[in-house]
Amino acid sequence: MKALSTALTLAMLAGLAGCVGQSGSAASAWYDGRDAIPPRGDRIYICHAFGCALKTPVDFAGRDIAALRRILAEGRGSPAAERRAIAKAVQWQERRVGKIVGSDKDVGGLDMQNAGVPGQMDCIDEASNTTSLLLVAEARGLLRHHRVESPVARGFFLDGRYPHATAVVRETASGTAFAVDSWPEANGVEPHIKPLAAWFNDYPS
User: Fold this and answer.
1) Where would one find the signal peptide in this protein (predicted)?
2) Nearest one of 20, 23, 27, 34 to 156, comparing CA atoms
């Protein structure tokens, strides 16, 4: 049993190692390490079925970009306002792609019985999809107060927590990083946004 636990721990570490401490708007190491696909223009590859096992391309048409622009424009006044707008943008994306991907019934939080089920998402899927959306917004100049960074992870079993990953943005004025975590909630619910330092200290995972 101990050997199995050790093997499982090492497997999870291998899957999540390398996401801690990464930065850079491209977040290329995150995508490369998880068989995910970064956005290409206005096409986003939505990860689902846990661990980005499935990837469904979704093209954001002009009206989608216009909607994203309107949502994020609500946050121009301050970094805090922009974070609220980012939460609304993530909610918008989840609702926008839900019927296409089959993720409209995605269950929030730890839900291992749905591993491998198309449309269901774990934290790797959620962190990848949120990062992809934010990269599209950043590339179009829609973020005024934040830059997009690579997702990060916490929890490695040994500290009593399951591994868990989140998308990250960094406030340009203060340098403070914030978790943008859509995993705890069901599809179409606003993500949890909080200082990354506080997110790392959350327990349980």
Assistant:
1) 1-17
2) 20
> Which residue matches tokens 């661990």?
51
Q: Which two tokens stand for residue 106?
A: 């995605």
Closest CA to 182 of 115, 113, 122: 122
CB proximity list for 39: less than 8 A, separation 6 or greater: 45, 132, 133, 135, 136, 139
For 24, the token pair is 């850079």
The band of 33, judged by pLDDT with boundaries at 50, 70 and 90, is: confident
How far apart CA 194 and CA 45 sit, in angstroms, is: 26
Q: Does a structural domain hold residue 113?
A: yes
Domain interval for residue 117: 22-201
3 lies in some domain? no
User: Would 56 be classed as within a structural domain?
Assistant: yes
pLDDT in tens, 110-160: 777 777 789 999 999 999 999 999 999 999 999 999 999 999 988 664 444
| pLDDT at residue 156, as a whole number | 62
* Mean predicted lDDT score pLDDT of the chain: 84
102: tokens are: 């089959």
**For residues 171 and 169, what is the distance between their CA atoms, to the nearest angstrom?**
7
Enter the pTM of the model: 0.83
Is residue 17 situated within a structural domain? no
Domain total of the chain: 1
Tell me how far apart the alpha carbons of residues 109 and 119 are, in angstroms, rounded to a whole number. Answer: 14
